[in-house]
Specification:
Elements: E1 2-7, E2 13-18, E3 22-25, E4 43-46, E5 52-54, E6 59-63, E7 66-69, E8 74-79, H1 82-88, E9 90-92, E10 97-99, E11 108-113, E12 119-121, E13 126-134
Antiparallel strand pairs: 1-2, 3-7, 4-13, 5-12, 6-11, 8-10, 8-13, 9-11
C-alpha cells in the first residue's frame, strides 16, 4: 500500500492510498478498469461484449472479460453507475455485488432493466463501478441476551420520516 499525493487539474493536491491490483484479461476486447476523476472512489467496469439489449424487467449477465487478484482483507464492491441507472434504468440486479478476495473467475455484472422501455449497452461501455474496500470478519457468538438500546427492536420506519 502506498500513500501518495496526486495533483488535480486545478493544481490542488489529493491524498490517496494506492494499491497495486493484478488484472488478467480473459477477452481481447476487455478494458482495464479506470477512474473517471482524480477523487473517484469507484473504478469503471466495461462491457467486453457486442451490443446487449434488455427488455423491461429483464436481467442479464454482462461480461467484463477480466479477472482480479483482490488482496486478502479486501473486497470488491460492485455498484451502479449513476448515469445509466437514472437515465436508462440499468443497474446491478443485486444492488451491490460482492467480489471476494479468493475469487479468480471473470468479473460479471448482473444488470437489470428497471425501466418500462428496452435499454441497451454497447461494446466497451462503462456498465458499473468497483470499489476496493477493507472489511472486518466477525466471530459470531450465540448469546441469550443483548445490550439494551433506546431504539430496541424497532425497525422498518420506527424512527420516523423526519
Amino acid at each position: 500500500m502506498i500513500y501518495t499525493l496526486f495533483t488535480n487539474k486545478k493544481g490542488g493536491h489529493c491524498p490517496k492510498l494506492l494499491m497495486e491490483l493484478k488484472i488478467k484479461k480473459l477477452n481481447k476486447n476487455a478494458t482495464i478498469p479506470s477512474y473517471a476523476s482524480l477523487s473517484a472512489a469507484g473504478a469503471d467496469l466495461y462491457s467486453c461484449e457486442e451490443e446487449i439489449s434488455f427488455a423491461p424487467g429483464e436481467t442479464r449477465l454482462v461480461h467484463t472479460g477480466i479477472a482480479m487478484q483482490i488482496p486478502n482483507g479486501y473486497v470488491g464492491l460492485i455498484y451502479a453507475r449513476s448515469g445509466i441507472a437514472t437515465k436508462r434504468g440499468l443497474a446491478p440486479a443485486n444492488k451491490v455485488g460482492v467480489i471476494d478476495s479468493d475469487y479468480r473467475g471473470e468479473i460479471m455484472v448482473a444488470l437489470h432493466n428497471h425501466s418500462d422501455k428496452v435499454a441497451s449497452i454497447q461494446a466497451g461501455e462503462r456498465i458499473a463501478q468497483i470499489v476496493i474496500a477493507p472489511y472486518i470478519t466477525a466471530d459470531f457468538v450465540e448469546s441469550q441476551t443483548l445490550d439494551e438500546t433506546e431504539r430496541g427492536d424497532g425497525g422498518f420506519g420506527s424512527t420516523g420520516v423526519k
